[in-house]
Amino acid sequence: MSVLCFSLDRGDNNFMKIADYELLLKLYDIGTIRGTAKAILISQPAVTQRLKYIEAYYNEEIFIRTPKRLVLTPSGEKILNHARKMVDQEEAFKNMLSETSQQVRGTLSIACSSLISQRFLPSILGKYTARFPKVTIDLVTGISEDIKRNYLDYHVSIIRGDKLKENTCVKLFSDPLYIFDTERFSSSGELKKRPLISFKSDDSMHALVDDWLYHHNDEIKPLKTIRVDQIETCKQFMMQGIGMAVLPESVSDSMKREYAYRPLKLNGKPLTRDTWVCYQKGILKLPQVHEFVNMLTSESFLP
Description:
The protein is of the alpha/beta class. The chain is built from 11 helices and 14 strands. The protein has helices at about 20-30, 35-40, 45-60, 75-100, 115-120, 120-130, 145-150, 205-215, 230-240, 250, 285-295, and strands at about 1-5, 65, 70, 105-115, 135-140, 155-160, 170-180, 190-200, 220-230, 245-250, 260-265, 265, 270, 270-280.
């Protein structure tokens, strides 16, 4: 997952701030100073210097530096619990202010599927921030399975596949799947043998493709599977003739004019990937969340 931004501009203040507590939590979650610095877009020396300040402030060693990762000391465990409480209290206080304010402001925390964040979210957030310039956007992107595990950390989750349990979920659109290739698909029953290029996604996507291939193994047989991280890389590999690729309509509609393709169907029904916006009960009391969900659910995603 990727975090939008982070700041450690503290100067020589001799007291703790919320960002210091957030830094401790991030160090614990990631486990290394180098990884944390990369995640929050701050230099490694700046993170090291701030950690030394925090340890000096409490007069306690918080982490033991081992070759593999940071390990909490007994005092560090207590400090980390305190940090978590302070961050939660600050967030609750911000939410309370937003809820009672007539003006749409505060922080809007969004976790979004990588595909949606690349294809649709920029234009939606462009309109949203133009209308509500005092709202701060906290955006995290990644695969849907990771988002589902951490959904409590966000106001809104935009996910693909199955909806979140114990949440209010609204379907945004259903995304049909197609298999593309630079080589034609036979209409005479001839077995097609080609490499299959797949991109990093959640298990439900891979299960859909595997099930379809199983029911069509007399027509299409992947010689091998080439795995890549990004859906765009998958598209480019297919366009270069390296192999076949299963792609959703949302990123491949214009490709149908240039490349051979087949819709994925089982028992005569198209296979699709549903996209949902999910949120916890009561969160729409926050004006910034209410306005974003309204804008999102009124959007037309596919023609």
